[in-house]
């Protein structure tokens, strides 16, 4: 019997041997077979006029829509909640939502990543600061400003007014019925703006830009696509100074303007009284203006 225990002790003390190699394999296997813990949670907060909503999430969709005045309601649906540290708290006149992966599981997150999908109703005047590392962001019906960031996901705004800064690394940005000053950027995705009114600074690294709307007097606007086409359809009675350059196809222009200069890849001129400014660049793509 003593010999048996002695042999076992030798096996356990064999550093760098078979046991050391098996440990990470066993842990990995357990991680692969762990069943996600599914649950839901809802939190409600009474708030003053023009509150702030801050979301910092390691993964999951964020949806914010206009709700009753004076209250913010947060409905959360979890995937693998045991691997997620989820907190909702009040900070002055704001509500802060944080969803962070537990550090112990962060290196194994690609196997069965935890996430939380958030459906939030908030007063129309709520200021937004929304960040998710992996998920779409959807906003509808608010009359406020904010910042939106997602590493992997699309950004969708509808019936929104206010100044907005929205950025994604991989995903499209789509805006429908918007009024305000917008800064929009995506590395790999398209930007589509329909029924937009205001000033717009739009950049894509690899993706098309489509704009249908009005540029307000006094605004400075830019549409920049490194690899992609830019299409601008101006509604109302356009009045702007235009500078468009393309290294690809000739520029297609359907506007009545006083042309200052034009060639196969460049166009500058004044439309109406020139009350706004619009710069368009397509380094590898076409430009269409009408």
Overview of this protein structure:
There is one protein chain. The chain is mainly β and 290 residues long. It folds into 3 domains: 32 residues, no CATH class; 108 residues, no CATH class; 119 residues, no CATH class. Helix content is 11%, strand content 58%. It is built from 3 helices and 23 strands. The protein has a 23-stranded mixed β-sheet that branches. The longest helix has 16 residues. The N terminus is likely disordered.
Mean pLDDT: 87
* Strand segment count: 23
Order of H and E elements: HHEEEEEEHEEEEEEEEEEEEEEEEE
How many distinct domains?
3
Total of helices? 3
Shape: elongated
Which structural class is indicated by helix and strand composition? mainly beta
In terms of per-residue confidence, which ranges show pLDDT below 50 for 5 or more consecutive residues? 1-37
N/C terminus separation = 91 Å
Helix content: 10-25%
Strand content: over 45%
Spatial extent as radius of gyration: 26 Å
- Largest sheet descriptor: 23 strands, mixed
Summarize the helices and strands and which ones pair or pack.
Layout: H1 2-12, H2 18-33, E1 39-46, E2 52-57, E3 62-66, E4 71-79, E5 84-91, E6 94-101, H3 103-106, E7 115-122, E8 127-132, E9 137-140, E10 146-152, E11 155-161, E12 164-170, E13 173-188, E14 191-206, E15 209-215, E16 220-227, E17 230-234, E18 240-246, E19 252-253, E20 258-263, E21 266-271, E22 276-284, E23 287-289
Parallel strand pairs: 2-6, 2-8, 3-7, 3-9, 8-10, 9-11, 10-12, 11-13, 12-13, 13-14, 14-15, 14-16, 15-17, 16-22, 17-23, 18-22, 19-23
Antiparallel strand pairs: 1-4, 4-7, 5-6, 18-21, 20-21
